[in-house]
Amino acid sequence: MTSLLIVHIDQIATPTGKSQRHGVEMNEISLVQDGAIYVVDDLIISVGKTSEILADLRKKNITAFDEVIDATGQAVVPGFVDSHTHFLFAGYRVEEFYERVSGSSYMEIMENGGGIQATVEATREAGFEELKKLGWRRLNEMIIQGVTTVEGKSGYGLDKETEIRQLRVLQELAVSQPVDLAITYLGAHAVPLEFKNDSEGYLNYMIDEILPQIKAEKLAEFVDVFCDEGVFDYQQSQKLLEAAKELGFKVKMHADEIANLNGAELAASIEATSADHLINISSEEIKKLSEKQKTVATLLPCTAFCLQENFAPARELIDNNCAVALASDYNPGSSFTCSIPLIIALASFKMKMTMGEVLTGLTLNGAAALDIADKKGSIEVGKVADLVFLKYPDYRYLMYNTGSNVVNRVIKSGKVVFENLG
Asked: Where, by residue number, does 4-imidazolone-5-propanoate bind (predicted)?
């Protein structure tokens, strides 16, 4: 048993609760001045004002600690949860990026042999150890920005061998480095060349051949589908996700990104854990998400920014009592970034979210989008001690110090995993 005591935190800032926060709840941030957090092993045992926590510990005759941190001058927030990424891939698409900056559309690039297919070719050629090395490097990029939990998808193999290899690498990374991983099978990321003009055949291949093996080997928790123009339509997406649910998987969706195929409505109707992107979500679908209350709307502002598209309607979603999460969509094509400061800036300035809503979207609602809000996403008794220390005394500096990484220490499961105190 190990113990950690953090004292004299200028400000503890956290959403509260064990499930997603909806609407106005997203802006309700608990603030404690001159705070303290007592941690045993990986769990938070007590949170409150320093004087009160110290008095309570003395009353219990707890006076020795394995580590004590004085956080004077610093704010502490929950570890960030990046609930939508494609970080495990080989190959880069820099030329494609500059084509898009020059005016080519995402779909035009795909039709000309670029897009996902370009990454598929490189990832199929990459071995296990190469993918693991690349994944480790990218997770290190995330943790120094305060990310303590990440969702990682397959989807750059589109064949059984490579998809399984991606998932096995993700499983290895989950136990070999400090960031927690939620693992998603996204074979339905695109239709591979082997099934050109036969998306239904590929759909059946995934359902009959790949999903049962993934389930038998316990390689993934979630199944995702790209429900959009030129990929998988409403009925195909429904067929795949219903088959996944029958096998015991939780489901997520890429929905309403490029065109509106009523993907968000499908996500709500089948109670997907999250519906992601939502650039082109309709007002009717927003009402469906609000009525269901179970599906988190995960918005990916870096993708809209890099694609030079409109941003998802965060304000309309929140004002209609939906639960909104924020994530990076880290991938080699449409969002080659895992920048938490960029997410915050775009959500604040372009999507008109308050700093409280942004913090909730990156923590508790991000955890809810991975069905772990009962364990993570807030600084509360009984939750995992995933903590981010800022070099400023107020959490609002996350927005105010625009575009800068203001993280100077990260604690994951009660242990310091990153420090930059210079």
From this structure: 93, 156, 189, 257, 334
269/385 same-domain check: no
Please count the CA atoms within 13 angstroms of the CA of 206 that sit on its side-chain side.
31
Q: Which two tokens stand for residue 93?
A: 């698409």
Does the annotation list 156 as a binding residue? yes
Ramachandran angles phi, psi of 348, nearest 5°: -75, -55
Residue 292: pLDDT band (50, 70, 90) is confident
93 labelled binding-site residue: yes
Say what the pTM is. Answer: 0.97
257 labeled binding residue = yes
Please provide the DSSP assignment of 57-71 as one string.
HHHTT----SEEEE-
Give the percent of the chain with pLDDT over 90.
92
277 annotated ligand binder: no
Structural domain includes residue 373: no
Instruction: Indicate which CATH number applies to the domain containing 364.
Output: 3.20.20.140
Surface-to-core class of residue 206, CB atoms within 10 Å of its CB (0-12 exposed, 13-18 middle, 19+ buried): buried
Select the more confidently predicted residue: 347 or 113.
347
Percentage of the residues of the chain whose pLDDT score is greater than 70: 98
189 marked ligand binding residue = yes
228 labeled binding residue: no
Is there a binding annotation on residue 254? yes
